Amino acid sequence: MKLRRLFEYIEGANLNFSRISMTVPVLTSIVPEAGPLHSSAYFVLLYLPAKSQVIPPLPLPELNLKPDPWTTRCIAVRKFSGFARDANIVKEAERLAISLGRSPWANRTSSKREYAYSIAQYNSPFRFIGRVNEVWVDVGGSELDDCGLNPIATY
């Protein structure tokens, strides 16, 4: 499971054996019909803290983790509470799609990405009240106003 490998990485399973502070959000990107029998697959990203951005610690080879340097992008976001579960994730993604359909960004979602949407989770799994999650969808690109440069490195 990739999440376990990411946890090992931040706990010191990297070439300089350094612990890396946990950051938020934990981002899960959904890849439709990439799994067996046309089911959805997913990949998980953890943001690296600012001090690890310039020279990120390399993961141990056996973890089979690959860096995913994010380029400039514009993202439409819908915030929701509670635990992120399959049923409410799909509902929130549909609500975001409906909202986008009524906005200037209708028909501007990016098809260049290998995933359809992402779920950003901001809280520890041990927090039960006041949880914050978001559904993210790439829209348009950096040509839109208010989409300035903000490169972020993730694993």
TrEMBL record:
<dbReference type="Pfam" id="PF04832">
    <property type="entry name" value="SOUL"/>
</dbReference>
<protein>
    <recommendedName>
        <fullName>SOUL heme-binding protein</fullName>
    </recommendedName>
</protein>
<comment type="similarity">
    <text>Belongs to the HEBP family.</text>
</comment>
<dbReference type="InterPro" id="IPR011256">
    <property type="entry name" value="Reg_factor_effector_dom_sf"/>
</dbReference>
<dbReference type="InterPro" id="IPR006917">
    <property type="entry name" value="SOUL_heme-bd"/>
</dbReference>
